Amino acid sequence: MFFLKYVMIRTYQNMKGNLFPNLITIGIIAVSMLIFSTFTLLAFNLTNFLKIWEDKIEVVAYLKRGTPSSEVEPLINRTRLLEGVQVVRYVSPYDAMAFMETKLGRQKNLLDGIQPAVLPPSFEIQLKKEFRNSTGIKEVVADLKKIPQFEEIQYGQEWVETFSVLVHILRLTQWILGGLLLIAVVFITSNTLQLTISSRRDEIEVMHWVGASPSFIRVPFYVEGLIQGLLGGGLAILFLLLLHQGLFLYIPPTIQDWLAKIPVLFLPPETIAVTLLGGMVLGFFGSFVASMRVLKYK
Amino acid sequence: MNEATIGMHHVSKTYPSQIRALSDVTFEIFPGEFTFIVGPSGSGKSTLLRILFCAEKPTDGEVVVQGMHVTQTGFRKIHQLRKMMGIVSQDFKLLRDRTVNENVAFILEVTGHTRKDAKEKASEILRRVGLEEREEDSILALSAGEQQRVAIARAVVNSPPLLLADEPTGNLDAKMTIEVMRIFGDLSQKGMTILFATQYTGLIKYFPYRVIQISNGQILDGKKVDVSKTDEEKAGE
């Protein structure tokens, strides 16, 4: 308890005595963490959008023209048995025509003179949850292609693949940038703490002389690093929240309508906790590096 | 016979620049002894003291302080050794942004005493060195002699059994030197072992304690220190 009180008082004195360098460090940690968490937020929302889109994804298998109606029922049963298939719905040419009329609304007269028979019958296949991703879809499609009665199979593969690649690039950028920022933050924190240590060198020398234990000398600086990291991380989250909240205020109404269909989420609590913890770890590591360099017992 | 408080056996120190600061130094100091280490500037006095408080490692030989083998003491145990000794230097090393009491109490705070306890103990020791009136004054308001008394109070506030003093009167005039030497004498009478490094042989004339003479890093055995003349007289010759 005494040690804790001592550490708190010393840390407060150190931070108060070197207020400007401390504020600069907190600011730099905040900016670095803001850049990193912005990428996290973007990747999180794109992943979320991809998940929503994948949940809705279904495969359409078009039957060859002239497939006898007697073959439809056994074909439905055969398709249902394929791994990854959850529901199979048969769409006859008449159902397809009715669907198109509904879609066209007032312009349905465009379909005048077109016979339903020109539209191919199809199966709308819903996949099991674990197959609703680019790899799972490809597996089911490969099995469907083995059935000779199907002429063509569509599943919006370009969308799924492009989106997956985009999310991967974002994640990769996030971690590469994160790594570079991490090194920068450790370097900056370490240098600020060296300034603090340097301004207290007489005190530290006296502490060395009288046999103060290394923990009495070092722990206040470690706590200083932790606090800088926590405040930097907290500020980053706060700025990100303001950016997230303010996003819609400056977007034209037409784009807002489109965006309204996509939920733009904020970081979940566990990611916020990890960001704050990450800031603290960075701050601690910076102070640890500084103490290794200049707080050796001599 | 008592175990020696300090034991230096065939200690040598050569710096990487090949400067030999100490050469085969051997002596022992027993509990309660007041010993002067006398030698001219650059003779190796400070190196000897720095080895005793683990600021430097000897190149050869064995050093035992308070039963601990300094040469084998690892980084993690240095602070344990230093808790058993007080250190006073020529340049005081006081914290200029603190009061007299705070300078002394600081030592106790960083070695595990509560703030209240540290303040009380600091007051007590400052009374013993005659600074009770100046406790709340800034260090900057004190004379050199008073600052050195604060440095001594700080070195002994933990009641260490051993006190190492490196030219503690180097920056003081004659009157202040006598004042400071009286405090060292009192501490010695109370049983503290004191190793006092100085280049001023005049001190030995007035304070008849054991003398170890050092020159060019070597102990001058059997050679008497000439105390018939003051340092100023010698300088004038």
Order of helices and strands of chain A: HHEHEHEHEHHHHH
Question: Could you report the average pLDDT of chain B, rounded to the nearest whole number?
Answer: 86
Q: How many domains of chain B? A: 2
> First CA to last CA of chain A: what distance?
28 Å
CA-based gyration radius of chain A: 31 Å
Amino- and carboxy-terminal Cα gap of chain B: 44 Å
User: How would a textbook summarize the main sheet of chain B?
Assistant: 6 strands, mixed
Largest sheet of chain A: 4 strands, antiparallel
Beta-strand segment tally of chain A: 4
Number of helices of chain B: 8
The CATH topology name of the largest domain in chain B reads Rossmann fold
Question: What descriptors fit this protein?
Answer:
heterodimer, A: 298 residues, alpha+beta, Alpha-Beta Plaits, four-stranded antiparallel beta sheet, 69% helix, elongated, B: 237 residues, alpha/beta, Rossmann fold, 2 domains, six-stranded mixed beta sheet, 32% helix
Fold blueprint:
The complex is a heterodimer of chains A (298) and B (237).
Chain A: H1 2-17, H2 19-56, E1 58-63, H3 72-80, E2 85-91, H4 93-104, E3 122-127, H5 134-145, E4 150-154, H6 157-199, H7 201-210, H8 214-246, H9 253-260, H10 269-294
Antiparallel strand pairs in A: 1-3, 1-4, 2-3
Helix pairs in contact in A: 1-8, 2-6, 2-8, 6-8, 6-10, 8-10
Chain B: E1 6-14, E2 20-29, E3 34-38, H1 45-52, E4 60-65, E5 68-69, H2 78-82, E6 85-89, H3 100-109, H4 115-128, H5 144-156, E7 162-166, H6 174-189, E8 193-198, H7 202-206, E9 210-215, E10 218-219, H8 231-236
Helix pairs in contact in B: 3-4, 3-5, 4-5, 5-6
